[in-house]
Amino acid sequence: MKIFAKVSIGLLGTVLSLCSVAAVEVGEVTFARGVLTGQVDGEQPRLIGKGVALQNGETLNTGSRGFALIELSDGTRMTLRPNTTFKIDEIKTETGNESAFLSLIRGGLRAITGFISKASPKAFQINTAVATIGIRGTEFDARLCEGSECQVEDDATNQEAQRESRVVGRVALLRGKASAIEDGDSSRILSTGAAVYERDQIQTGIKSFAVIAFNDETRATLSAQSAFRIEEHEYNPQQPDESNSFFNFLQGGLRLVTGFIGKLNQKAVRVGTPTATIGIRGTGFDLVCEGACVSSNAGLDPARDSLLGKLLNLLVRPAYALGDGNGMYAKVWSGAIELELGSGKLLLTNGRTAYLRNNLAQPQLIPDIPAGLRNMGGAPRPDRVPMPEDAFIELDASVIEPGLYVNVRKGDVAVQGADGKTVNLGAGEALQAGPLRAVRLRFVPAFQKFDQIPDPARITVQGEKMMNLFGARGGDRESMECTVR
């Protein structure tokens, strides 16, 4: 019997060894504080630490006084909070077949995602009991709150959370591709429902259009290969004098209808263009800007921005006023607009169209925008595009109910709630998902905004020795506890 037992153990060891060789490594632990265990489906739990490889199908558990930083094979970095259960369901990195499916079962995490998430939110997903998180190249936090733990943390936070949303609008409708960039930050891909902010420059791709709905019910449609910048937009219905909106139209086609800001104070809404500044009088209008009309800020043009390009610009500027057949067309289909030019002002009323060759020439009244430019590639009038009623509904998070809380620090995520509806979140936004649905919050809760768990970008080799957030000592019995779940 003893010999049989030895042989059996030897065979078992060989089988486990072969399984270990065949296992697919999809990441590793790069930092661990306190107890961290891992368990691959069908195997015994193991105590793991820094440098240990992680596998598909592995479930990780952190102790009550510890946390861990893991790095996945696509470059994703995640800090797992104390008392967290997290599973790597499956990660694939083969070119053309990249995907990552993960599960947050308990606790929470802070993440900076890698190259898989940049392809599509459907390619990188984190499942929870109440919602599914789809990620597109972003930095975000996710926390499952049970009982009163999150409320206690929120109450104990001395700092006040910012209680105003930065979001000024959302993408109501998108066909094709569009992107946004904010003051030198990296470009982000837009999708239907995505947030837009002050200082965003929005650009549409070839054979594309986007309809932007602002929080005062202003609507703007950008046709294909257009550029539009939100310089200022502040809506305060209680204090109309403080509300204002200034957009900068840079190139392509724009269809705009004003909202409540224009109704409260007509002088508070203005649109800048390369050839004129437009004052609004409660209106809807179209702009088409091509050729010499295009702003130098519309996008990078190496030929134009080169030394030779700048020299040629100086040489041809005197002839610029004669025009080259290109320029800006403006047509009013509701209300009126006032064109402010270097040569004076022109009031354009409902049904009238003007052609502005450039900012040095006199505007011309014409019957209509040329037929080839008139429908802007099928881009719809914005007043004919409905916006979901809950687009700007945000709940107060003063009471922390049980559920999933997600906040975005950079990029965007899409959260599908239990009702099947998807809520898009952008930078600075937060969401709570319960057993019935997911809904945006008016501000990021303090327990997340001022989370003491370090974000993945701040955990470095140099900083490891300085981390003692929970007061754990080498001989602390509680820090050495090991619980198998």
Supply database-style keywords:
485 residues; mainly beta; 16-stranded mixed sheet; 41% strand; disordered N terminus
Describe this structure in words.
With 485 residues, the chain is mainly β. Helices cover 12% and strands 41% of the residues. The protein is built from seven helices and 31 strands. The protein has helices at 2-22, 149-156, 260-264, 302-305, 307-320, 371-374, 446-449, and strands at 25-33, 36-40, 46-47, 53-55, 58-62, 67-72, 77-80, 85-92, 99-106, 108-112, 124-127, 132-145, 167-175, 178-182, 188-189, 195-197, 200-204, 209-214, 219-222, 227-234, 244-257, 269-272, 277-289, 328-341, 344-349, 353-356, 364-366, 403-416, 422-426, 430-433, 438-441. The strands form two sheets. It has a 16-stranded mixed beta sheet that branches. The protein has a 15-stranded mixed beta sheet that branches. It is elongated.
How many runs of DSSP E, i.e. beta strands? Answer: 31
Spans of 5+ residues with little confidence (pLDDT < 50)?
A: 1-22, 300-324, 468-485
Structure class: mainly beta
Main β-sheet description: 16 strands, mixed
Give the integer mean of the pLDDT values: 83
Separation, N- and C-terminal Cα atoms: 34 Å
Radius of gyration: 28 Å
Overall 3D shape: elongated
> In DSSP terms, counting alpha (H) and pi (I) runs of 4 or more, how many helices?
7
User: How much of the residues is beta strand, in percent?
Assistant: 35-45%
Question: Share of helix among residues?
Answer: 10-25%
